[in-house]
Structure formats: C-alpha cells, structure tokens
C-alpha cells in the first residue's frame, strides 16, 4: 500500500474589494445575470460569467424545470454557451455568485460536482488552467487557479 496525499491550494479574499479589478468586473457581470436565473423551485439563483482570451464575456444563470433533472446550473449554461459561440477562444476566468430568495448567502458557493466535471473538460481541451472565483451574495471570495484544485483525480479523455 502506498498512501496518496492530495493537496489543493485555494485563496480566500475577505471581500470583493480585495480581488483584481478585472475580476470584480467579471463578478459584476455574474451578479447581473444571476437575476435572470429561472429558479421557481429552489429560489436559489446563480450567475456565472466567463472571460475569454478574445476579450468576450459569456454569461449564464441556472435554468430550472418542472422535471427537476432537466434544469441546468449557471456554470454549465455559461461554459456551453461559450463553447457554442466561441469554440476556438480559450477560457481564462470564470466568476460565480449565488443568492437565495429565502436567506442571505454570506458564504462562498462552490460549483457543484457536475459543473466541475463540465468545466475541467475545457481545461483539458485548451491545455491551460481556468481561474475560478466564487462567492455568495456578499462576503468572502474564493479563488482557485485551476478547476483541478476543486476536482483532483479528474476523469478525462486520458482515462478512456
Ligand atoms: N446551481 C447552480 O446553478 N450551480 C451550482 O454549482 C450549484 C447549483 C443551481 C441548480 C439549481 O437550479 C439550484 O442552484 C439549486 O440547486
């Protein structure tokens, strides 16, 4: 038996005021598109904004469905939109913010496992990490330098 130790390094910022200005702007885009979430079942609204190498920003919000599994998270809405619109432009950064209509979300909300898997596909494709920032409605912002920091032991095309 050989132990395998996995480490991830994340950065925690006390507030949005501490993150770089371009990411503050990206988070602002995520905050605006968060309002477009269609979340009548969970009342949980998530916004995601993606900065591409070509300078374009592509956004997404969660879209729910009466058939619950048919809905889609904000991050996948955004990343699939980016892939559909700008298939050849690398993804540099993604900013994510969540709010609830039921309580104030003051802790950072990380992307769900399925979204981590969807996002890492593009890191593998572009052979460059994607910076990820996530927060609640207010409060701390967490930064990961790569999706892989949130998804070690990644399942990717090398496994097939
Ligand atoms: N949601 C996202 O949009 N992103 C995540 O990473 C976590 C969850 C959405 C899905 C659903 O519409 C609502 O939040 C509650 O789970």
From TrEMBL:
The active site is at 75 (proton donor). Its cofactor is Zn(2+). CDD domains: cytidine_deaminase. It comes from the Bacteria. InterPro entries: APOBEC/CMP_deaminase_Zn-bd (IPR016192), CMP_dCMP_dom (IPR002125), Cyt/Deoxycyt_deaminase (IPR050202), Cyt_deam_tetra (IPR006262), Cytidine_deaminase-like (IPR016193). It is an enzyme of class 3 (hydrolase). Residues 21-158 form the CMP/dCMP-type deaminase domain. Substrate binds at residues 62-68. This is Cytidine deaminase. It comes from Christiangramia sediminis. The gene is cdd.
């Amino acid at each position: 038996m050989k132990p395998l130790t996995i480490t991830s390094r994340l950065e925690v910022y006390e507030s949005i005021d501490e993150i770089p200005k371009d990411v503050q702007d990206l988070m602002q885009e995520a905050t605006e598109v968060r309002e477009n979430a269609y979340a009548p079942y969970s009342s949980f609204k998530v916004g995601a904004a993606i900065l591409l190498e070509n300078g374009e920003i592509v956004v997404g919000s969660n879209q729910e469905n009466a058939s619950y599994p048919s809905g889609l998270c904000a991050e996948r809405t955004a990343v699939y939109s980016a892939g559909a619109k700008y298939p050849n432009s690398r993804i540099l950064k993604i900013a994510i913010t969540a709010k609830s209509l039921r309580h104030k979300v003051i802790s950072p909300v990380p992307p769900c496992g399925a979204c981590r898997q969807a996002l890492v596909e593009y890191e593998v494709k572009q052979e460059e990490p994607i910076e990820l920032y996530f927060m609640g409605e207010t409060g701390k912002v967490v930064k990961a330098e790569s999706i892989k920091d949130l998804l070690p032991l990644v399942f990717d095309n090398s496994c097939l």
